[in-house]
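stuck on this fold:
=====
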Amino acid sequence: MHWHGIFKINELMKPLGIKNYGSIPHLSNSKLGAGDHFIDRGQERILTEKVRDKNDEIFVFEKYDGSNVGIGKIDNRIVALTRSGYIANTSPYKQHHLFSDWVYKNIMTWMDLLENGERIAGEWLAQAHGIKYNIDNRLQPIVFFDHFTANNKRSSFDVLDSFYNKYEIQLPRLLHRGKSETVENIWHELNKKTYGIMPDEKPEGMVYRVERKGEVDFLAKWVRSDFEAGKYIMNKEEKDLVYNVNFLWKRKRSICPNGSRLGEVGELYPQKPIRITNV
């Protein structure tokens, strides 16, 4: 059952009244896409050169190449959303309908995880865009990277990690946590082979995030110069689209080898097991 039937006609297409997710500015040595912009130089120095004081904490994650989506809770109902904030199953694209179906198949998780007005955002990787991914067939093709409160405030990474610990949702690969660090010094870590969700070429890039006293201050991203955005979807007919998975509706439970989440091959770090399908 799809719950969007409760919304009024003028709310049907964009129930949040805002975008599900905005744009993240680029570091100065990142490849810009259409409509993208660079981050302020002073903010870039905080991320890559020197923190302001002991209260700054820098996080760097692998950047995944898929479709930005979200799951919201409005009036005690769950809605599956596209990046722009529209209801996913009103999208003209099949991948968003697949996402919508997946959300409602796992609706009890989102009912418990989200409070009214909150949403969680991630990258839906079912369809290849600019990178093909080899996704372990016990994982679902999504990585969650942000949670927003009812006041549209981005939650800290520790809040996301608490959702992992309780609900075992898939999180992005954490490349660095601590002081400022350059792209060049993290590049080697980014390019190591990973367990679970592996690109068939070099990863797209990284997402930087600075938090102060447990609150998110700002984000930036870096995309490699030779990344070809949308090469598997641009000017393609439906029959020619490439999908990273063909197991979307397998409903079995399992765990990752060694009870690990995304980590480096050969250096898997033990965590609670991922809930593979019913995240």
